[in-house]
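Q: What would this chain look like folded?
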Amino acid sequence: MAREKVKVKWMSVLGGCILLILSIRTSPETLAYGDIPVPEYTNWVLGGLALLLVWYGSLGHRLHYNAKNGPQVCPSCQKTVTNNKQVKCSDCNALLEPLDGFYERHPEFKEKL
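A: My prediction, written as structure tokens:
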């Protein structure tokens, strides 16, 4: 069984971690925008935004790829699947790819046709 690669958007994760550290280490008294005071809940907002960035960078960005429309194909066994809710191949458990443009992305399978 082929092992799937986990894609991580490192800039989102790094930005979220930096923002989380800043929200923990910064006291609300030191935050100000010129002469305008910043509310006390700013650290909570920054912390929540940081957690959202870390979640998006590690897991959330993959949700878009799982919602593809149209038929999909397994890159391992070249089985075509029309069920849009299915994410992995039922035979070999590999992640499915859209059929549109599959043979341009994988020219080695085009020779086997």
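The mean pLDDT is 78.
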